[in-house]
Amino acid sequence: xxxxxxxxxxxxxxxxxxxxxxxxxxxxxxxxxxxxxxxxxxxxxxxxxxxxxxxxxxxxxxxxxxxxxxxxxxxxxxxxxxxxxxxxxxxxxxxxxxxxxxxxxxxxxxxxxxxxxxxxxxxxxxxxxxxxxxxxxxxxxxxxxxx
Length: 147
Fold this sequence. Notes:
The protein is of the alpha+beta class. It has two domains: about 5-60, no CATH class; about 85-145, no CATH class. It is about 30% helix and about 20% strand. The protein has four helices and five strands, in the order H-E-E-H-H-E-H-E-E. The protein has helices at about 5-10, 55-60, 85-95, 105-125; strands spanning about 35, 55, 95-105, 130-135, 140-145. It has a three-stranded antiparallel sheet, with helices on one face. A two-stranded antiparallel ribbon has the order 1-2. A hairpin with a 2-residue loop joins strand 4 and strand 5. The radius of gyration is 17 Å and the shape is elongated.
């Protein structure tokens, strides 16, 4: 396992699960304290090294009980949003493309796309994901695709 401070610095002291700041001065025994998480770690070709991420202790503990939830921000206008974490995991395993949300108009879809790509860059930095925006039927569809 890596040094907690090195992993924290690598992730800018932001929890990869909830995307909120982690206080490096809190005890590792505090629910909001820092912990190193290796969930979904990618084996690096050099050998037994893993990509590790920073998480709040509580976020890290809870993901062992239930699938992590990456919330969509309330200020984005998205309809029927898909669960982000599960969508990313399916794309990681199977590739392809998945519709992740519908938006009322092009501008809302572009804002959601920008936020989503930024958020996923911290959730799954090893994946080359992009978005596709398609208008039709009085709405705009936002899809996430691998490659």
